[in-house]
Amino acid sequence: MTIASKLALIEEFHRLSNAFDDTLNLEREAVLFRPFWDSWSIIEQVVHCVDFDIANFHRYRWGIVSPGTTVLSFDGTWTSGLDYQASELSAAINAIKAVRHLMSSHLKRIVDSDWSKYCYTFDDGNGFTLEEALQHFIGHVGFHRELIDRNIKLFAQT
């Protein structure tokens, strides 16, 4: 992976720290709306992304200081178990911005390094190199942004 392509990934990753800013302009009912019994609300999507970013901040750092480290994972039980619905949207968005800023700044400092040597694994043996992880972090926001847009559209139809 070239330095230019690493910098482009870092820029995209950092740019996505603004992916949920528009949700701050929504009425609270829209933010809490669940279009289906088994779907997440907008606040649940955003807070999940906070947990995801914080966990991955920790994971990628382990992958750098101790390549191959087995890291913890989490699942959807966090959403109900941690009462994401009661979370403060602006604080969640600020947390995403802070974590992504810190991570982007650090990644720029190691852009000359061989990112393929930085990796972490999960209990099931699957894992990521730093490049794969960063691409996954970018895709994750896009996936949840699509679900948020769906919720906004369906809320408008109620």
Give a structural overview.
- There is one protein chain.
- With 158 residues, the chain is mainly alpha-helical.
- The protein has a single domain, classed as Up-down Bundle (Four Helix Bundle (Hemerythrin (Met), subunit A)).
- The chain has helices at residues 3-15, 28-32, 42-65, 77-81, 89-109, 130-156, and strands spanning 69-70, 119-121, 127-129.
- It has a 3-stranded mixed beta sheet with strand order 1-2-3.
- Helix 1 (3-15) runs parallel beside helix 6.
- The relative contact order is 0.21.
List its salient traits.
158 residues; mainly alpha; Four Helix Bundle (Hemerythrin (Met), subunit A); 3 strands; 60% helix
Tell me the layout of helices and strands.
Blueprint: H1 3-15, H2 28-32, H3 42-65, E1 69-70, H4 77-81, H5 89-109, E2 119-121, E3 127-129, H6 130-156
Parallel strand pairs: 1-2
Antiparallel strand pairs: 2-3
Helix pairs in contact: 1-5, 1-6, 3-5, 3-6
